[in-house]
Amino acid sequence: MAYPLKGNQNLRKYKAKNVTMNVISAVDKNQTQLVQIFRQFGASVLHLHQVGEGCPDLLIGYRGKNFLVEIKTAKGKLRDSQTEFIRKWRGKPPVVVRNREDIIDLLQSARE
């Protein structure tokens, strides 16, 4: 069955053991801009949004510390799968980042 893609979704093809799967991953409209800001501050950024199952969008490395980051727009809300991931995650809880100020607050916490 084919589903139309929404404006913020990417279609990726994955091949594993001779099977090709189409995976749709949603990317918030501000993700590209916020990734650039993280990198401007010298952070390492690994994209995780294609993992699915509520996994946060990014893994951020900064000053020897790692952060799981969920990108949301100003009014964006966590999906049920994301809330469930956060509830079950046994490491440091993922952080929701919406803007530059949130990034600054997060990276300043790495200095403590």
Portion in helices: 25-40%
The fraction of residues in strands falls at 25-35%
Shape: globular
* Class from secondary-structure proportions: alpha+beta
Q: What do you see in this structure?
A:
By secondary structure, the chain is α+β, with helices and mostly antiparallel strands. The protein has one domain (28-109): Trna Endonuclease, Chain: A, domain 1 (3-Layer(aba) Sandwich), CATH 3.40.1350.10. It has helices at residues 31-40, 80-88, 100-109, and strands at residues 9-16, 19-26, 44-47, 58-62, 65-71, 95-97. The chain has a four-stranded mixed β-sheet with strand order 3-4-5-6, covered by helices on one side. The chain has a two-stranded antiparallel ribbon with strand order 1-2. A hairpin with a 2-residue loop joins β4 and β5 (65-71). It is globular. The termini are far apart. Mean pLDDT is 84; it is low at 1-15.
Short structural summary:
The chain is of the alpha+beta class. The chain has three helices and six strands; from the N terminus they run ββαβββαβα.
